[in-house]
Amino acid sequence: MSTATVKKHTKTHSTYAFENNTNSVAASQMRNALNKLVDSVTDDAVRSKFENEMDSFFSLFRRYLGEKASGNTLDWDKIKSPSADEVVDYKVIETSQAENVSHLDKLAVLKLNGGLGTSMGCVGPKSVIEVRDGNTFLDLSVRQIEYLNRQYDSDVPLLLMNSFNTDNDTAHLIKKYSANRIRIRSFNQSKFPRVLRDSLLPVPQSCNDQLDSWYPPGHGDLFESLHSSGELDALLAQGREILFVSNGDNLGATVDLKILNHMIETGAEYIMELTDKTRADVKGGTLISYDGQVRLLEVAQVPKEHVDEFKNIRKFKNFNTNNLWINVRAIKRLIESQSLSMEIIPNQKTITRNGHEINVLQLETACGAAIRHFKGAHGVVVPRSRFLPVKTCSDLLMVKSDLFYLEHGTLKIDPSRFGPNPLIKLGSHFKKVSGFNSHIPHIPRIIELDHLTITGNVFLGKNVTLKGTVIIVCSEGQRIDIPNGSVLENVVITGNLQILEH
């Protein structure tokens, strides 16, 4: 390496001194600004909780400054593939484990319910989007656990971690389940102030500042919020030892007795479900062995020169589904000893003030990154069927189709389907649920579909069947109508097409 290159990558003592001084000033200014926010709270009952949240945020902010200054990065040469003990295949777990229901009294299920449906053009919690046969995400979760409790005469509770964006709507919605055989509890994750990227000061000027001044700090906040809300102690008082955590929009994340019993048999405090990567998942976080410790590696942590290597599905074969099984006592131990420090994810956003866009920063953490703090933590490589997220209307088309059928709140793939799920890409006309519904009022049959791409102003009629690879590209300003009863197999349709039925 040349002298010039060494100078480029090496920080001098004076550089560190300057950065430490800058960080000290930024931390001091942030502390003063947060104290003013706390002083703006007039209700004593609200003030105590708000003050605790600002203290938690300040700890996160100070850690961010420290990591930014030290340039904390993983040493790529130390990254190793996980051992057979660190990642276990679902197939090798004893099948008899699936028949043992005695540990259900130790289980609670938690759904991450803080997200809004804005990316799909909906107002309110994403969990209330209708996904199948009139059922919302939340309906399906409730039906699954209610059936589990009825089938095994158990009393597995459902917890919902809401954000300030979803709490009021969710509280209203869960009233309809009061007669169901299920106990539903909800609690709020933290509400942190967004930070101005230029000055590193908080966006809000008072505790009542407009909503876009604040943000929920990612699902890594689960542990702290579970503890501060009192729900962690409530679970322990009920004898609940294992918490199964998953994203509210993952329709494949159902209670699996094999994994539950495997966790108790092995004494593991944390199990992460992984599944095999496809080309659609190349950016997904994966488990690695690092300094003798199992850790989650996210694409954001990968040096630029190694990103292509990270995306290579032959080297990094599986990714994190965010289906997590966590020991409740271990959470309490780590929170109370302040031993949970997860990698910070700086998320850059923009907000509008006085007609101008302002660059802001929100500091987030992910609960998957906590794996390295738990004893006996490991991954289990599960079937792809346990990862069925609905992030876009392309996903919505698939879960609404004949590819799946609904059984006791669980989506199951049609046994006549051969091969992996089809790859579906819908263009901007289908980005929002309203546009999706108007262009595809009737879901086509896709049991034999491999790949579908639709862009432009395309409308599908009734009883349309899609097979193999189907690509429909409509020219701008034009319209394509696929007539009722059409069977499209391995075709490319472009331009402008309106077929009138006779």
Descriptive report:
It is an enzyme of class 2 (transferase). It comes from Kluyveromyces marxianus (strain DMKU3-1042 / BCC 29191 / NBRC 104275) (Yeast). UTP binds at residues 126, 189, 218, 249, 391. Belongs to the UDPGP type 1 family. GO terms for molecular function: UTP:glucose-1-phosphate uridylyltransferase activity. With 502 residues, this protein is of the alpha/beta class. The protein folds into three domains: 13-70; 76-386, Alpha-Beta Complex (Spore Coat Polysaccharide Biosynthesis Protein SpsA, Chain A), CATH 3.90.550.10; 393-494, Hexapeptide repeat proteins (UDP N-Acetylglucosamine Acyltransferase, domain 1), CATH 2.160.10.10. It contains twelve helices and 27 strands. The chain has helices at 3-9, 13-39, 44-70, 137-152, 167-173, 222-228, 231-237, 257-266, 307-311, 328-336, 393-400, 433-439, and strands at residues 79-80, 87-89, 107-113, 130-132, 135-136, 158-162, 184-188, 192-193, 195-196, 214-215, 242-247, 270-276, 286-290, 293-297, 318-327, 345-353, 356-364, 378-381, 404-407, 410-413, 423-426, 445-455, 458-460, 465-474, 480-482, 487-495, 497-498. The strands form eight sheets. An eight-stranded mixed sheet has the order 2-18-12-15-11-3-6-7, with helices on both faces. Helix 2 (13-39) runs antiparallel to helix 3 and helix 7 crosses helix 10. The longest helix has 27 residues, at 13-39. The chain starts with a helix and ends with a strand. The relative contact order is 0.12. Mean pLDDT is 90; it is low at 1-16.
